């Protein structure tokens, strides 16, 4: 089997300030990788480099593309990366306002990726949009409402529907449950876990919430000051942390 | 003639404009930046169109200027007078006799012929402007043919109004490549852009952009398979003066008790039809 994503020696710095340094990992099809760490540890920098939003200073990100086999996305042309971004990749932002078009209806938001890859039949686009709204538990009657009329949890679910409609294989999530209250978080996690398992998605999830990775991630990477300090199976890392920082992180969680 | 250089602009400026026009013709639908000059008229009055016309004019040309289809409105009259004074070229109101036609908001009803040049005045050349505010991003989107967003706008129209509600400046795709704003012409005129034998030039003075449709260019109005493009007009009536049913009409309020009439917006077309009818009668 070919790994879906293979990251080799990925580094990114902002001038003298370090983003992330020499990150290596392999993501296999159907696997969910969690990245945890405190604010400023380079998690989001790493994710943005993987998703092609930022150009890394060094390293390779080799993606097993659908038609051409393993290719380095860093060396690809911008046009190819954008094509991947609206077909094979999905990116769920922490703040749904960053990932949604707030002045476009829910149906238009979900349909955008379909239209970007060439769908030109209004009825079909609308039917698919309604179908996806139902899958993320949004009432299909709200297909023409704008996202600003939605609650925070609904906006986040709409963002997920909008990303998954073209059947991506690799989902990047940046704090998908940040800013939501705990009961809404729980429902969203439930939904995400269902979707990821049912669709066989591979995902890279960045979060500082250990409960999220416990539920969703198969494997875990712990970052501190731009470096990966520990990685392994989720339960193994969380239950038997080896690195001092991971021990601190795990022991910092309040037990309710 | 006057004390101005021929057609007002100096020769170096006209050369700069002609280079931009040649590039625009070579890449149909692509917006070519140019260094727009101050013209002796306010922005929004056709400074872009005037510069393009000035760059194209030769002494043998016959110029026609229309504004909303009419030859006799302020904008049309002042631009026509301007070129009559600074270039000394012949002017006309007859579409068929003109070699260069500068227009605002309309394409003449009389079909254009080979060798004619139609110059459009364009307020906002970027079709993606109100969808994506960043100029760097809209340029990238054009470069990468990333036009999903344009389709989203049409989708939103159907979702909200039951049809594509855009009535003017209806976006078109040129030769299957660039999405282009055809300037604020009514969508009724969009089919005239397609495979036109005339050269069509678009000048946006404030935005410093020139773009073009060479003769016989394929121009397709964007739509959905199940909601095809309709080149409709508001009034389903015939012109009250010349009885033309196939032309674009203006609504004219005639009194303050609700009286109104619909007349051709293309005054030359209307007058020619009336003259032909009187000729038949005589």
TrEMBL record, chain A:
Gene3D superfamilies: P-loop containing nucleotide triphosphate hydrolases (3.40.50.300). SMART domains: AAA (SM00382). The keyword tRNA-binding does not apply. InterPro entries: AAA+_ATPase (IPR003593), ABC_transporter-like_ATP-bd (IPR003439), ABC_transporter-like_CS (IPR017871), P-loop_NTPase (IPR027417), PhnK (IPR012700). PROSITE patterns: ABC_TRANSPORTER_1, ABC_TRANSPORTER_2. GO terms for biological process: organic phosphonate catabolic process. One of its GO terms (molecular function) is ATP hydrolysis activity. Keywords: ATP-binding, Lyase, Nucleotide-binding. Residues 5-250 form the ABC transporter domain. This is Phosphonate C-P lyase system protein PhnK. It comes from Roseinatronobacter bogoriensis subsp. barguzinensis. The gene is phnK.
Automatic annotation (TrEMBL), chain B:
InterPro entries: PhnJ (IPR010306). One of its GO terms (molecular function) is metal ion binding. Its EC number is 4.7.1.1. It comes from Roseinatronobacter bogoriensis subsp. barguzinensis. Catalyzes the breakage of the C-P bond in alpha-D-ribose 1-methylphosphonate 5-phosphate (PRPn) forming alpha-D-ribose. Keywords: 4Fe-4S, Iron, Iron-sulfur, Lyase, Metal-binding, S-adenosyl-L-methionine. The keyword Lyase applies. It comes from the Bacteria. One of its GO terms (biological process) is organic phosphonate catabolic process. It holds the Pfam family PhnJ. This is Alpha-D-ribose 1-methylphosphonate 5-phosphate C-P lyase. It catalyses: alpha-D-ribose 1-methylphosphonate 5-phosphate + AH2 + S-adenosyl-L-methionine = alpha-D-ribose 1,2-cyclic phosphate 5-phosphate + methane + 5'-deoxyadenosine + L-methionine + A + H(+). The keyword Metal-binding applies. Signal peptide: none annotated. Belongs to the PhnJ family.
């Amino acid at each position: 089997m070919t790994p879906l994503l293979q990251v080799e020696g990925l580094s990114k710095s902002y001038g003298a300030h370090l983003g992330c340094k020499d990150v290596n990992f392999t993501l296999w099809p159907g696997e969910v990788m969690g990245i945890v760490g405190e604010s400023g540890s380079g998690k989001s920098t790493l994710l943005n480099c993987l998703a092609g939003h930022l150009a890394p200073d060094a390293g390779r990100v080799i993606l097993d593309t659908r038609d051409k086999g393993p290719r380095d996305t860093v060396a690809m042309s911008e046009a190819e990366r954008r094509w991947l971004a609206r077909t094979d990749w999905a990116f769920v932002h922490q703040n749904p306002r960053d990932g949604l078009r707030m002045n476009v209806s829910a149906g238009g938001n979900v349909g955008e990726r379909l239209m970007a890859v060439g769908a030109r039949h209004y009825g079909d686009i609308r039917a698919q949009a309604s179908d996806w709204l139902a899958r993320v538990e949004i009432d299909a009657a709200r297909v023409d409402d704008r996202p600003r009329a939605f609650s925070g949890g609904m906006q986040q679910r709409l963002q997920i529907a909008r990303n998954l409609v073209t059947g991506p294989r690799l989902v990047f999530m940046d704090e998908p449950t940040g800013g939501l209250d705990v009961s809404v978080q729980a429902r969203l996690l439930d939904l995400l876990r269902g979707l990821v398992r049912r669709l066989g998605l591979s995902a890279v999830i960045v979060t500082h919430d250990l409960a999220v990775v416990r539920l969703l991630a198969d494997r875990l990477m712990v970052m501190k000051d731009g470096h990966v300090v520990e990685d392994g199976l989720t339960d193994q890392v969380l239950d038997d942390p080896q690195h001092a920082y991971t021990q601190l992180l795990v022991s910092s969680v309040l037990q309710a | 003639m006057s004390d101005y250089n021929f057609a007002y602009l100096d020769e170096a400026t006209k050369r700069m404009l002609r280079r931009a026009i040649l590039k625009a013709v070579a890449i149909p639908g692509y917006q070519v930046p140019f260094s727009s000059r101050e013209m002796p008229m306010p922005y929004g009055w056709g400074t872009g169109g005037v510069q393009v016309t000035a760059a194209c004019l030769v002494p043998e040309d016959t110029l026609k200027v229309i504004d909303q289809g009419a030859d006799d409105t302020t904008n049309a009259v002042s631009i026509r007078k301007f070129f009559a004074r600074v270039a000394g070229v012949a002017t006309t109101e007859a579409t068929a006799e003109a070699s260069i036609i500068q227009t605002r908001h309309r394409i003449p009803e009389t079909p254009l012929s080979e060798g004619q040049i139609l110059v459009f005045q364009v307020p906002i050349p970027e079709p993606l402007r109100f969808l994506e505010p960043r100029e760097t991003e809209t340029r990238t989107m054009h470069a990468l043919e990333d036009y999903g967003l344009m389709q989203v706008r049409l989708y939103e129209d159907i979702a909200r109004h039951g049809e594509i509600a855009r009535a003017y400046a209806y976006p078109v795709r040129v030769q299957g490549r660039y999405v282009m704003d055809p300037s604020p012409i009514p969508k009724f005129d969009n089919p005239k852009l397609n495979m036109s034998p005339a050269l069509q030039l678009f000048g946006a003075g404030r935005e410093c952009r020139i773009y073009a449709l060479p003769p016989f260019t394929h121009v397709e109005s964007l739509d959905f398979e199940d909601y095809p493009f309709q080149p409709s007009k508001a009034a389903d009536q015939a012109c009250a003066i010349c009885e033309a049913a196939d032309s674009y009409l203006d609504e004219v309020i005639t009194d303050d008790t609700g009286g109104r009439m619909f007349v051709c917006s293309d005054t030359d077309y209307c007058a020619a039809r009336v003259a032909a009818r009187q000729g038949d009668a005589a």
